[in-house]
Every structure is written in C-alpha cells, then in structure tokens.
Write a structure and sequence with these properties.
13 helices; 33% helix; globular; 9-stranded mixed sheet; two-stranded antiparallel ribbon; alpha+beta; single chain
Length: 519
C-alpha cells in the first residue's frame, strides 16, 4: 500500500471509527493472524488468548502503534489498586440499599460466588453493539458517496441513506426496549455515584475482580502472568460479521488535496493518486477485560502519596506513563488495492496494512475532512467493566443542503428516542420482535475440559452471549464507483486477518483527587 492510499485510509478510518473522546492508533508493522489464532476461546491451550492479551494491553504511543511499549495496562491498574490512598467516606443505610439494588440490575453471583454480568446487562451490550455496527456501516457508505459524483450523491440521498436511517432508528428502538437501556443506564449512574461515597468498599470490589492468583493465566515459556483480554462480540470474525470498507479514487484524491502542503510534498503526490479503489472487509469488536474497571481512571476519591505522580496530565498532547489505553479493535481482511490501468505501480512500502510511522506522526486530519458527529447524552460506564462506551453517534453534522440520520431528522428516530424515555415495562411486547438471539453457546467439542473450566473461572465464557452480527446490516445497495472506470487488482489475496487499528480512550488528568473529600 502506497503513502497516498495510507493517508486516505487513515482519514476514512477516523471518520468511521473515531469520536470526540477516542483516538485511533495504527500498527506500524502489519499484525497478521491466521483465523485460527484469533479463536481465543476455542484454543484448548489458551495460548492464543495469552498472546492476544499481551498485544491488546500495551499502552499506545500515539497514532503510530509500534507494539513495543514496555507498559501494560494491567501493570498500571494494579499499581493503582496497590499504592493509591483512598478518601474516607461511608454510604448511609439508604444509600447502601440503593447501591445494592442498582448492582443487582447489573451483576449476579455465579455458582462460585463471583460477580458476573446479569442477562440484562449482556443484552444491553448486545443491542448497543448492533446499533454501533450499523452506525459504522452508515458512516463508511456516506464517506464514499459524498466523495463521488453528482449521480452517486443523489443515489445515496434517495436510496441508501433513507434505508440505513430506518435501520439505525430500528436498532435504537430495540436497544431501548429489548436491551433495557433506560434501566441499565440508570443503574450504571447509581453505581457510579454511590460507589464514590464509599471508596474503600469500591476498592474492595475492584480488587475482588483483579486477583493475581485467580484472574491470571501463566505463559508456559517464561512463566509470565497475563490478565486475559478477549473481544466481543465473540462472532466478530464469522463470515456474516464482515462489512465492506471502500475508498474511491475520489476519496483518496480529496484526502491528498486537503493534506498539509509539507505532507503533500513529502508524499510526492499530485492531484491524481492513480488509485481507482481500495477495498477490504472490516469488523470491529470491543475489548473485554473482566478484571478491569475503567472507573478507576476517572474516580476522584484516590491519589498517590506523591502528589506529583500522574498517570496522565490530561493535556493535548498528554504526558505520562498511561495517557490512553485500547478499548476496541478494528480487524481487516481481503485487502485489494485497485489502480487505474494508466497509473504506474507504486514502490511497495510494506506488506498488508503496514503504515509509515513518519506519515502517521505528521498527518493531522483536517476538520474540513473529518467532520465530528452530533452526540447524544453520554452513557455511564459499561456494565461489564471494559471501559466507558463511545458516544452514541447517529451521524455527522449535515453539510448545507444535505440530510443526516440525526435523531431529530431520521425517519422513526423521534419515536425511537421517545421509546427510550418511556418506562420499560410499559412498552407493549407484541410491537417488538427480537432480532438478536442471546444465549450461552454450546461448549466447543474439541476444547479440553480444563480449558473450559479456565474460561469459566476467568468469566470470559459469558461474553460469547452476544448478537449475531450477520443480521445487523440491512440489505441496502452500496454506493459504488461507475463501472466505466477500468481497474485491476495489484494485491494478492490471502486468508490473513489484520488488525487495522486500535481504538483508544485517552485518560483525563489522573489521578485528580477531589480536595473536598476527607483524606
């Protein structure tokens, strides 16, 4: 992949997967996996799970993800649990009752007495995930259409956009009702607010999920202890889960035209990059860490003994040993770079989805190209402990004369919002039909009993209870380039699955102790 294609790919990935409170970090060296190596819960030796956990918990070092950071998220997190000083405060009897009631909505006790997500919390996650997948598909198609000619743009507005808007509104309504969104988010807010009123009890709960003797795996080669991390939905790499990611030649040329002049000079690119299209399939998944609570990084009821010791100063650019951490991953496969017949083949810059680290560090995505979307109210912390969810984005702000799938303009969206605000039990069941089957999958026959027991101990088997993403996208014709543009493949196809990017959440200033508390 040449530098021009890289630049355009970064711009579109930022458009589809970026948000106001997340950053993308692109692996510099291609991270290619055989499909079997990403079957984390079906590997009888759990070695695939160990290796993925080591990869997904490295602290990113900016947009160019080198993968050689010596700092791992569990080192930072366990340092907080081990060394932090906590404020003195206790919940009242009524607050304790309210706290326990909210926890009962989000968590249950398993057969071993350990706290795990309730079925309602898992359903919430599944329906939320379905909505976010549809949103990504919308943004990917929108970017291709708006970079095309007048006929493509008109087809988008008349056919593709309305259908995708209806799918988004439908998914939002399902999330509200079948995913019990109001009840779950109310419980999340209650747990967050009341948890801060009893810091030592909250610390005890955090430690109870992060026990080095119970919640780790040991790598046989060097006896390294690993806190396991998997991805969800568990079927994110099944054939039905993949979506097409396409960059037209017009998108690539527009990205180059809007890049800073010094960067264009470095790329040696003119107005035409000679690329007819860049296509591959993508799938995204959240990173699952049952041992981790993202609330620890935003809580203001703890501090280090050394007041100058910070994990992150919260500035831009931030300084500190942990300025961000990965919360999700974007996978890619079936990569095809198609060039115009008249264009000379570029010099190779690497294999697969490798990126030029200097390009990644120099590029600054233009606000005129990456338009930030309108946001709905931010949801509280994720009920199953992998970090705060990204903002719920219906779509980008409209350009003059265009329409977007905003909650105030999308067909049926106002009704969906109204449903979210209704008491959940007051929604008539016959008006809704489940589209997502949520249930514990059958055990994998080839998996040794010991490995199954390990996964149950680590609570990772629960997260296989996820949506069937094959049903997530409506059958909508995609906006494509006119067939008159003759193109030909220049990249071989293989079965490898690549990590295109890690979606990372920056830390605020951390720690940021509240001076009003008693210390």
């Amino acid at each position: 992949m040449d530098a021009a294609a890289q630049l355009a790919l970064m711009a579109k990935a930022e458009h589809v997967f970026g948000s106001d409170d997340t950053d993308l970090s692109f692996p510099v060296t291609p991270l290619a996996f055989a499909p079997a190596a990403l079957d984390l819960l079906g590997d009888g030796t759990v070695q695939h799970l160990i290796e993925f956990s080591l990869l997904a918990n490295r602290i990113p070092d900016g947009p160019a993800w080198s993968g050689d950071s010596p700092t791992l998220l569990w080192d930072v997190y366990t340092q907080v649990l081990r060394e932090a000083q906590f404020a003195q405060s206790t919940r009242t009897a009524q607050e304790e009752a309210d706290y326990q009631a909210a926890c009962a909505v989000l968590y249950r006790q398993d057969e071993e007495g350990r706290r795990v997500p309730t079925d309602a919390a898992l359903a919430y996650r599944s329906y939320r995930g379905r909505y976010l997948l549809l949103q990504q598909d919308y943004l990917a198609q929108q970017a291709t259409a708006t970079a095309g000619d007048a006929a493509q743009l008109q087809a988008w507005r008349d056919v593709q956009q309305p259908a995708l808007q209806r799918g988004l509104a439908d998914a939002l309504a399902d999330w509200a009702a079948l995913g019990e969104r109001a009840a779950i988010e109310q419980a999340q807010a209650q747990v967050g607010a009341l948890g801060a009123k009893s810091p030592w009890q909250t610390l005890s709960e955090w430690k109870g999920r992060c026990n080095p003797d119970m919640d780790t795996l040991t790598r046989a080669s060097d006896q390294l202890r690993v806190y396991p991390t998997s991805y969800s939905p568990g079927n994110a790499l099944d054939d039905g889960a993949w979506r097409q990611f396409e960059l037209s030649g017009a998108e690539i040329d527009a990205a180059l035209a809007e890049a800073p002049a010094d960067l264009r000079a470095r790329l040696g690119a003119g107005g035409d990059a000679g690329i007819a299209a860049l296509r591959f399939e993508f799938s995204s998944a959240a990173l699952v860490r049952p041992w981790f609570s993202a609330d620890a990084f935003s809580a203001r009821f703890w501090r280090f003994a050394d007041a100058t010791q910070l994990l992150s100063d919260g500035q831009s650019p931030a300084q500190g040993p942990c300025t961000a951490y990965p919360v999700a991953v974007v996978f890619a496969r079936n990569i095809q770079v198609q060039r115009k017949p008249s264009a000379p083949a570029p010099a190779a810059t690497g294999t697969g989805l490798g990126f030029d680290p200097m390009l990644l560090r120099q590029v600054r995505l233009s606000p005129t190209r990456i338009i930030r979307p309108r946001l709905l109210p931010r949801a509280p912390a994720d009920p199953i402990g992998i970090g705060r969810p990204p903002p719920i984005r219906i779509g980008p702000r409209a350009a003059p004369g265009s329409s977007t799938p905003d909650a105030t303009t999308a067909p049926d969206a106002a009704e969906a919002i109204a449903m979210r605000r209704m008491p959940l039990r007051g929604i008539a069941a016959p008006a809704l039909r489940p589209r997502i089957a949520i249930g514990r999958p059958a055990p994998i026959a080839s998996q040794p009993v010991a490995a199954q027991a390990t996964l149950r101990r680590l609570r990772l088997d629960l997260y296989a209870r996820d949506l069937s993403v094959a049903e997530a996208a409506p059958a909508v014709p995609r906006v494509t380039q006119p067939p008159a543009a003759a193109i030909h493949d220049t990249a071989p196809r293989d079965d490898s699955i690549y990590i295109l990017a890690f979606i990372c959440r920056p830390l605020p200033r951390c720690p940021d102790p509240d001076p009003a508390l008693a210390w």
